[in-house]
Amino acid sequence: MISEASRPYIDASVPVLREHGPTITKRFYADMLGTHPQLTRLFNMGNQAQGVQQQSLAAAVFAYAANIGNPEALGPVVKRIVHKHVSVGLRAEHYPIVGHHLLKAIAETLGDAATAPLMDAWKEAYGSLARLLIAAEAELYGTAGIQPGETRPLRVTETKQESANVLSIRMVADDDRPLPPFQPGQYVSVAVDLPGGRHQLRQYSLSDAPGTGSLRISVKREDASAAAPAGEVSNWLHANVAVGSVLQVSHPFGEFTPDTESDQPLVLLSAGIGITPMVATLHRIARVRPQRRVLFAHAARDRAHHALGAEVDALRATMPNLSVVNFYEDAAGADGVLEGRMDVARLPSWAREETDVYLCGPGKFMQAQWLALLHAGVPAARLHREVFGPELLDHLL
What we know:
Helix content is 39%, strand content 19%. The protein is built from eleven helices and twelve strands. The chain has three domains: 7-144, Globin-like, CATH 1.10.490.10; 152-249, Elongation Factor Tu (Ef-tu), domain 3 (Beta Barrel); 266-387, Rossmann fold, CATH 3.40.50.80.
């Protein structure tokens, strides 16, 4: 929390700073990474090139400031940020560096409007957020029993092309230690050394249930487009990983953990590569609660881009109360699917006010489904989401 003296400055400046958010964070990243190039290993440089990481930081800082007196709203956001920070090995000593360059960027962007009282208030607000995150991250590191940035070698035992652009990679321990426990929905960071000596980390959801003696990730190859460069790490993994390869992998993290253990009905909605944590969830339910009533709906571009669909279909044999609905934007040559984008109105009905709904997919899909579900009568407290890529926190702004 911040002092009563600082609060009016924060409240008054949040709308102005939000308007200039992308400019502030663009300055911040350029200045910080130019001064401390070793920190590039902690950031997704593809997201940097697209500007989405800058938007994410701006959203996080200003959402924190705007909701600083609302712990119920901030709690889930802070938890999500903490898991992501720990997954890439963020350390307490990084926070003063971030704070220095962030406040500098705010002052440079506001110019004469960046008065001493205003900057002191933002220094206090950032310090409050930093202390909160540092303490929570230290606790999570301790619970996991690891040091910041620690990875371990895992050996690839299987690769499988799941769709036109998704490759599954199954790994086992390459040392004498057991694999770490995890919950369906969680992810690991994979570290790779790219040409030119650059080291990058990317997070990939675990796409199979725990208890198999292995970890599996399913990686979408991110091709270049007019709006974004090709994904360096995903393309490297597709081109270079084979049986026998050894990858450096983090402990599993992530707060998006669908309920797999109860008998309550459940709705799982996904699009694209967002199917990966949902398949892990479904595998676990099939093992421990096969009679559970589950609605599993997925949206894909077409059949060729529908990853892991065969596994979902196979689980119908052991889950008599599993309903599966697939949407293809291009349904040509595909039987048993609905054409077009996912539409909540075209899904089988369920008890809207009593059923938890989990969503995972690209940002635009998530925003559309979130609003459609609220309009359909699903309480916000029943909605849980995981967004691949920086979270824009639009529901808090």
